Automatic annotation (TrEMBL):
InterPro entries: PHP_domain (IPR052018), Pol/His_phosphatase_N (IPR003141), Pol/histidinol_Pase-like (IPR016195), TAT_signal (IPR006311). It comes from Actinomadura harenae. Residues 1-10 have a biased composition (Basic residues). It comes from the Bacteria. One of its GO terms (molecular function) is 5'-3' DNA exonuclease activity. Residues 1-21 are annotated as: Disordered. Residues 77-152 form the Polymerase/histidinol phosphatase N-terminal domain. This is Histidinol-phosphatase.
Length: 537
């Protein structure tokens, strides 16, 4: 079980450096260069490989404009959706988009698995389907992304806002940096360096104007123990405008009572610092997010964003009457996608919910467009909820001394000794969810965590200075919960964040570990919001 080094490495990519003649390249590197040349993506700048581990340009050119939170549009979406172009999924792009729209989603990302056959055949086929779905659903913001097999890590959503050719950039990224394609999945220092080179490559594309922006979100982070704390810190340091966070709760919440497929034990590629309970979900949320003072809080203690999301990770929708057609062995490898699913007329039991049916990621966008959603995720203006537990959430944090308030992902700065006021408006569910229940928020917790600066231990995953400072309980027939909390005489920087529950399963205030083989997702609903930082001068 590796993952013990702490140093960042520069990735050697001679195929991308035009100063290296063709004759000095190994055959595989020469093929990579030819591929990039065909796409018009060659040169050291094209790969970003020549850039520093923490590219100055990446940090500077992407200083976000902070919009007034009172003018935001809150748009619900799903960044982890599979289609028939994944080796283990079946629905068409059109079926996924129709379902997402029907469940009230405003944006979606198609994220088929990185795979040799996917890169070879499916990228173009899927793109044609995406363009068709965009035309048929003009209000739905639809991306074609990728579920990246992160070298030395696990899976991650990657997607671009492309200035010119999103297809070429996506294909090039998958071919150059996907662990399945390049045999870099296993845990090693060299493969960790390849993942960072992939982030620098995307950063380089942004600097060249080939793509406008890119995002990476780590998927089901604790499921197999593959991500180590230092890898998350390295991703964020290398490309803070691209590697922005992780799934707070995984998809596949109907997975045979395992919620997200979290029924595993450490393997040969797992980081050996994780405790056994980290391989389980708590109220359907990943242990890194659900554990008070755990990995998420340790990242936030550094005073920088590391945001959480939620999604369906849909491969096959539970209750759907569709099933995969029977195909000969080797079909996927030869075609990069399966034929359209066939209708059996009989509801099937599957591990996944349709996009937006159970989990939602709601983002505060300044504009209703691709850039608006990506900027909202990048800046942490995100809250997530399961099972329709909340209709709407508004958080405004006011520091003494004026200025407009901060909302999720934002920051306020106050003088030492000043007060900070948090105003929360939560609109409770009034309509039945997908199983016919009107869920009831039993409690909303306001959590405070200390900001202590950069971690001395890159593999540290605790923040002991975290606590629930106040819990709010809606009155019996209340449909809008309006509450306020004042932090008085603030002396040190901190962050605050929210979480809520239907209260059906908890250990005191804390979520309980889901019961293996018997988890009932609709009977244990939670919501979480990203933090607001308070800086003290």
């Amino acid at each position: 079980m590796g993952h013990h080094h702490h140093h960042q490495h520069h990735h050697d990519a001679p195929y991308a450096d035009e100063a290296v003649p063709d004759t000095e390249l190994r055959p595989g590197d020469l093929a990579r260069r030819r591929f990039l040349q065909r796409l018009g993506l060659v040169g050291a700048a094209a790969t970003g490989v020549g850039m520093l581990a923490t590219p100055a340009s990446a940090g500077q050119g992407h200083r976000p404009h902070t919009p007034d939170p009172r003018r935001l549009r809150w748009l619900a979406g799903d960044h982890h959706v599979h289609t028939q172009s994944s080796y283990d999924a079946m629905h068409t792009v059109a079926q996924q988009v129709t379902a997402g729209r029907g469940n009230g989603l405003d944006w979606m990302v198609i994220t088929d698995h990185g795979h040799v056959a996917h890169e070879k055949f499916a990228v173009e086929q899927t793109y044609a389907d995406v363009l068709k779905a965009r035309r048929a659903n003009p209000r739905m913001l639809l991306w074609q992304g990728l579920e990246w097999n992160v070298p030395s890590g696990e899976h991650a959503t990657v997607f671009f806002d492309a200035a010119r050719d999103e297809l070429a950039a996506l294909r090039a990224f998958e071919k150059l940096f996907d662990g399945n394609i390049n045999g870099t999945n296993h845990t090693s220092p060299e493969n960790e360096a390849t993942a960072l080179a992939g982030l620098r490559w995307m950063s380089g594309q942004i600097d060249r104007g080939v793509i406008d922006s890119a995002l990476m979100i780590a998927n089901h982070p604790s499921r197999n123990g593959r991500y180590s704390p230092h890898e998350f810190r390295n991703y964020r340091d290398t490309a803070p405008h691209i590697a922005v966070g992780m799934e707070g709760s995984p998809g596949a919440q109907n997975d045979g009572g395992h919620r997200g497929g979290y029924g595993n034990a450490p393997g040969t590629d797992s980081w050996n610092g994780w405790p056994s309970e980290s391989y389980r979900t708590f109220g359907g949320f990943d242990w890194m997010t659900a554990r008070l003072g755990g990995l998420w809080d340790a990242m936030l203690a550094e005073g920088r964003g590391w945001w959480i999301t939620s999604n369906s990770d849909i491969h096959s929708a539970n209750g759907s009457t569709l099933t995969s057609p029977t195909v000969p062995d080797g079909w996927y490898d030869a075609h990069g996608r399966y034929p359209d699913p066939v209708d059996t007329g009989v509801p099937q039991r599957y591990a996944d919910f349709w996009p937006g049916q159970f989990s939602r990621t709601v983002v505060g966008a300044a504009t209703h467009d691709f850039r608006g959603v990506m900027d909202a995720i990048r800046q942490g203006r995100v809250w997530v909820a399961m099972g329709g537990l909340l209709d709407d959430l508004d958080v405004q944090v006011h520091g003494e001394g004026g200025g407009h308030p901060a909302t999720l992902g934002g920051r306020v700065t106050v003088r030492r000794g000043a007060n900070v006021t948090v105003r929360i408006t939560a609109r409770l569910a009034t309509r039945p969810n997908a199983v016919g229940d009107i869920p009831r928020l039993a409690r909303l917790d306001l959590i405070r965590g200390a900001v202590t600066g950069r971690a001395a231990d890159r593999d540290g995953f605790t923040n002991p200075q975290v606590s629930v400072v106040e819990s709010f309980t809606p009155r019996r027939h209340e449909t809008v919960l309006r509450v306020e909390h004042r932090f008085r005489n603030v002396r040190e920087p901190f962050y605050l964040r929210l979480r809520g529950t239907d209260g059906k399963r908890s250990n005191g205030l804390e979520p309980m570990m889901d019961v293996q083989g018997a988890a009932a997702p609709w009977d244990d609903l939670w919501c979480y919001a990203n933090p607001v930082f308070v800086d003290v001068r």
